[in-house]
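Researcher: I've been going back and forth with a colleague about how Hsp20/alpha crystallin family protein might be arranged in three dimensions. Neither of us has a model we trust, so I'd like an independent prediction. The organism is Paraburkholderia denitrificans, in case that matters for your notes. Sequence below.
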Amino acid sequence: MSNISRYDPFGIEGVPELFHGLFRPLRSAGGAEAQPGGIRIDVTEDDATYTVKAELPGVEKNDIDVKIEGNLVSIAAKVERDTELKDGERVLRRERYTGSVSRAFTLASDIDEASAGAQYKDGVLTLTLPKRAASARKRLEIS
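Model: Here is an independent structure prediction for Hsp20/alpha crystallin family protein. You can compare it with whatever you and your colleague have in mind.
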């Protein structure tokens, strides 16, 4: 009986381990690996609105800052964890992220900042971003 194996173009024998990290971003789903402590987002759109859902677990609502400038959206947050130790207690391992996280991205259309809305529930920030109506182009008269 023959053995069937999956071909991995980046698992070439003879390539030093040093170079394997160069190909890691190409191997992950979606073309990019999630960064520790980073903000993961989903963006959807319809004819009039963009909807952005951003994962911000463990963040207080008051520690989130959203800014909109034209078609640029930036989200920043402070992630704080309780670091106070009880008497006689000591830390054996600390893996949960503490610090600041941010994410900025552009959308295809400008956003109507006055009508934009935000809601934070169960660690998910939901932004409703209405598209700004396209302004009529003005034709300049050449004299």
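Researcher: What would you highlight for our discussion?
Model: I'd start with this: Strands lie at 40-45, 49-55, 64-69, 72-79, 99-106, 117-121, 124-130. After that, consider the following. The domain at 35-83+93-130 is CATH 2.60.40.790 (Immunoglobulin-like).
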